[in-house]
Every structure is written in structure tokens, then in C-alpha cells.
Amino acid sequence: MFAQEVKTVPPFIVKAMQAEFKDAVNVQWKMVDPFYKVILTVDETELEAFYSAEGKLTAVSRKLTIDQLPLALMKEVKEKAKTHTISDLFELLTDKGTEYFLSITNEKETKTFRSDGQDWERY
Predict the structure, then answer these.
(1) Residues 6+ apart with CB under 8 A from 69
(2) Secondary element (H or E) of residue 61
(3) What pTM value is reported for the model?
(4) Which of 36, 104, 108, 116 is the most buried (most CB within 10 A)?
(5) Bond from prior residue into 34 cis (ω within 30 degrees of 0)
(6) Closest C-alpha among 66, 76, 81, 72 to residue 118
(7) Mean pLDDT of successive 10-residue stretches along the chain, which has 123 residues
(8) How far apart are CA 32 and CA 50, in angstroms?
(9) How would you classify residue 73: left for phi > 0, otherwise alpha for psi between -120 and 50, otherwise beta?
(10) DSSP string of 24-49?
């Protein structure tokens, strides 16, 4: 999937976003087929939200720091960070609930992990 700038977002999708994120600023739209992706800032936090072509909010994500993780996940990430570089860490909220994603790298490889808040599993 590649993001493309969107010149025109259907007004009903813009309206749905404005209703969901009333205080959003720095709004930027992209097309990530088949979704409309909006990058926005709410309360000084950058979020990414994904809308279907029908205007349904399908997911919201935000980047995290290690200290923003649930306690059950934090210790293991701190251990991994001693020998690897954290290249990506974010939270994803969908209709399935909240999931966490972690990518770590070293000179040889990149590993990605997923968690539902309890344990990390290789993704």
C-alpha cells in the first residue's frame, strides 16, 4: 500500500472526521487504497485515522513511547531496546479493540511484534 495525496475527499467523509475529532488541527488527507487516511493533531497528539469509502471510521493509530505502553508490555520492550533500536512503536484502535505494534532493528534484521496488551507475539 502506498499513500497518495488526495485532491478531493468526499464531503461526507470530511464531515464524519470533523464530528469524530472536533478539535483536530493540521489535517492532511491521503489515499491508502481502499481507505482515506487522515493525519491530524488532537490535544497535541498526532493521530492517523482511516475511513472507508462509505465514511466509516475503521481504525485510529498513534505513535507511542515505551513509557506509554501498558505495564505488561513495557518491561519486555525495555529489554529489547538494550540490544535493538526501536524503529516503530504504535497503538492501533479498531473494532477488534486495541493492539500494539513494535518494530525493532539491529544490523542484521528487523522484527515486528504485535500485542493485544498482554504478551508480544512475532508478527
Answers:
(1) 77, 89, 100
(2) strand 57-63
(3) 0.85
(4) 36
(5) yes
(6) 72
(7) 70 96 95 94 96 96 95 92 93 96 94 95 93
(8) 9
(9) alpha
(10) -EEEEEEEETTEEEEEEEETTEEEEE
